[in-house]
Write a structure and sequence with these properties.
InterPro entries: G_IRG_dom, Immunity-related_GTPase-like, IRG, P-loop_NTPase. The protein has 240 residues and is α/β, with parallel strands linked by helices. It has 10 helices and 6 strands. The chain folds into 2 domains: 36 residues, no CATH class; 187 residues, 3-Layer(aba) Sandwich (Rossmann fold), CATH 3.40.50. Helix 1 packs across helix 2, helix 4 crosses helix 5 and helix 8 packs antiparallel against helix 9.
Length: 240
């Protein structure tokens, strides 16, 4: 391999194989296995919480891109809608109907949206988490599946606070986090991830990413890792 690109030599070495041909064959086998493992992610929350923009961000799309989940100021999701990841089609992100109706029943909701379809749930809110969010989380917990609270539209809160005297971004983020956690205390102080769908590089997205990778079943971890919007195709090829 003396005449080969040093990066290729390093990639072959990292694969544990002795030749480029064997490394490619191993990568293809890994890729085929990856494509056969399905991962279903459910995203729910009340109307206006930014579910569709969040789903688009996870898929590496802008709201205006072809195939993006439709966004709007009114409820656009009336039944579970599945969106395949553009680069990893076995990763499916589901946009579930909002949970903000006055007669919301968590157990009925989970039955209606076919609870067992999903590997884990992301409960989204652009304000503080309320009783319906807690009820849903409790019901998910009963079924032994994971749920994650995401406080969305953080960029709007920061923009509003920047106009005030004595602005301190970290203090504002801490205040928002504590306010969210206060309403969730009966669940045992669960983590709340502060995220902007339009600036994933900021706030808690990296922590959120790491948490999911740690908690997803081993055989589905690779599918999740390949689907993250921060992964480039160049990096993926070397990971394989």
């Amino acid at each position: 391999m003396e005449s080969q690109d040093p990066a290729v030599v390093e990639a072959v070495k990292a694969s544990g194989e002795s030749t480029l041909e064997k490394a490619i064959a191993k990568a293809k086998e890994t890729f085929d296995q990856l494509m056969n493992v399905s991962l279903n992610i459910a995203v729910t929350g009340k109307t206006g919480s930014g579910k569709s923009s969040f789903i688009n961000a996870l898929r590496g799309l802008n709201d205006e891109d072809d195939g993006a989940a439709p966004t709007g100021v009114t409820e656009t999701t009336m039944e579970p809608t599945m969106y395949e990841h553009p680069a990893v089609p076995n990763v499916k992100i589901w946009d579930l109907p909002g949970i903000g109706s006055p007669n919301f029943k968590a157990n009925k909701y989970l039955k209606d949206v076919k609870f067992h379809t999903y590997d884990f749930f992301i409960i989204l809110n652009s304000e503080r988490f309320m009783e319906n969010d807690v009820m849903l989380a409790k019901e998910i917990k009963k079924q032994n599946k994971n749920f994650y609270f995401v406080r969305s539209k953080i960029e709007n809160d920061i923009l509003a606070e920047q106009r005030k005297k004595g602005f301190d971004e970290q203090n504002i983020l801490c205040k928002i986090r504590k306010d969210c956690q206060k309403n969730l205390k009966e669940l045992g102080d669960p983590k709340v991830f502060l995220i902007s769908s339009f600036e994933l590089e900021k706030y808690d997205f990296k922590i959120f990413q790491n948490t999911l990778e740690e908690e997803v079943p081993d055989h589905k971890r690779s599918a999740l890792q390949q689907a993250w919007p921060v992964c480039s195709s160049h990096i993926i090829m070397y990971l394989l």
